[in-house]
């Protein structure tokens, strides 16, 4: 998940001052494009207490009365007061036009697109609910179902672990209705029809106590200031440029829409449960596709990536090395399909590669999300990986599936982690364990010429469990840590069993006295780690001394 489990999102109605400005800017854009599809428009609107200022740059053959368009939008929203309108519109800058004339964009920037399988809209449930409340206010007002409702309004929804905790609705209203009637009416006609049972949900309606003055009478408005409402309610980062009033040559709008399209298709095609697409900070994106049967390659191409189709090698690093060789730039960032770069890491990478450095590569901490939780101990944190390196200075040896990328020369470290959405289900974990990791482990063991002994069937799993759970402090991750340590033990047992299978399930005689010897050895190791953990966990000096004495006599 890209946002906190406790979060608040918002939405606004059409009569909110900022949204009024958005609609006026878009109405001018629409009229220009209707008359001249090649129009270039960057239009912004500012409203304040009876005055509206329309400004921007336009290159178009369209002929329209922009002030009259603004008044029409204002009246259709539901406001009746007269506006003093000032316009200051000029032709697009020739410096910007140079880029657009050649088929490019008129600007550069950073754009994001996001999708999740949480709802059928591929948006977080809180965002969907906030929009439903404001749409519901619009419907109740425009259908005259609630006669005291006025155009301005806002909703907020606070979610905690997927459950609704707080619903806030603020609505402009006439002066002849009580706040108790407003709250009672909105609960029955707006909130319950959308949410259903509201037991345990805190309901806030017009918490200031009164909302008679709205729109430009009460506050100022500005195009683009409700960009969070236009996107993901404040949960997901955005590039900063507004959408409204801009034609498709403005990447603030068009690239954000395309990023959302890509993210939505990746989730809709069940390639991932959640996706954040960021555009414009990488010079090129290379995707090496192992003849996938889904739409990965098609979607990647639409996103502007260079896609190379290769055989689906069990040793995935062969394909990665191939992709490294196709890169055109000095620096390479190596990511798997289930890995993400945070905003903080992106900025750290940008600063790192733009300054002189003696390093040819950098280790990055990896934040592993397993069964829905960030695992902060055991094998999975900080889990440093060399992922950023200079081209021709790094490659995989292609000998082991768990191997690390090797870099010629010195290697530094970055502080911000990249995010790995690892196993989301037990079946996924076991499938990968069986078909990829253990097969590769067994292959390398057999090639080494080593032999197994029946005692290893007990030693390997127990020692792997002790290492992950005690030595690497997996116990600090609660039940997740315990289960993952046990699964690591199962991994070791599975490797042993597959090697035994390669040897034809050769029988060995096992005597009960031999098991006693193994029990004695394993009991010694288990007791050692219990006491060692107790020493590390206590701050009591006296207890530390007692535990250390016990350890000496194990």
Please describe what this structure looks like.
This protein is an alpha/beta fold and 554 residues long. It folds into four domains: 115 residues, GMP Synthetase, Chain A, domain 3; 88 residues, 2-Layer Sandwich (GMP Synthetase, Chain A, domain 3); 141 residues, Spore Coat Polysaccharide Biosynthesis Protein SpsA, Chain A (Alpha-Beta Complex); 121 residues, no CATH class. 41% of the residues lie in helices and 21% in strands. It contains 15 helices and 22 strands. The strands form seven sheets. The chain has a four-stranded mixed β-sheet with strand order 1-6-7-8. The chain has a four-stranded mixed β-sheet with strand order 4-3-2-9, with helices on one face. It has a four-stranded mixed β-sheet with strand order 13-18-15-21, with no helix packed on it. A hairpin with a 2-residue loop joins strand 6 and strand 7. Helix 14 packs antiparallel against helix 15. The mean pLDDT is 88.
